[in-house]
Write a structure and sequence with these properties.
alpha+beta, Umud Fragment, subunit A, 3 helices, 6 strands
Length: 150
């Protein structure tokens, strides 16, 4: 029995339940997929879509995955044959995510707070044209710097 894995699963389930009940949640960001907009260690506030309606391109959304929530920017909405799909992508990711249906979008990010771990405030404004390539190069540089530094 893996207690850490069990705890992660319980917390994930509680967060998703709260969002589905119309309540907002606050979680800590990990990883660099949304760098430089949201940096690791930032605290992000996720509210359910029901509060402000359907997401728009450029907004940052929380996506349900088997492993938990990931936070990426909605880059486009595609409707074909009456089916609407949402395409998201991390601001520093090389490629877009696979198309999603609306039930996979858990909420939208409405606020991000800096922490002692990351004192730089996050910028969660709507951005329809993130500079993916430059952001990715910056993240690669940060990761290499951390490996050399330690």
């Amino acid at each position: 029995m893996n207690t850490r894995s069990d705890n992660h699963s319980i917390v994930k389930d509680i967060g998703l339940t709260l969002l589905s009940e119309g309540k907002s949640i606050r979680i800590k960001a990990h990883g660099y997929s949304m760098y430089p907009c949201i940096k690791p260690g930032s605290l992000i506030l996720i509210e359910p879509l029901s509060i402000k309606g359907m997401p728009r391109p450029g907004e940052i959304i929380a996506i349900r995955r088997e492993s938990g929530l990931i936070v990426h920017r909605l880059s486009k909405i595609i409707s074909k044959n009456g089916i609407t799909c949402y395409i998201a992508r991390g601001d520093s990711n090389a490629y877009a995510d696979n198309p999603l249906k609306i039930d996979k979008i858990a909420g939208r990010i409405v606020r991000a707070e800096s922490t002692g771990e990351n004192p730089v405030p996050a910028d969660i404004r709507i951005n329809t044209k993130p500079n993916y390539f430059i952001n990715r190069i910056r993240v690669i540089g940060i990761i290499l710097w951390k490996k050399i530094k330690f």
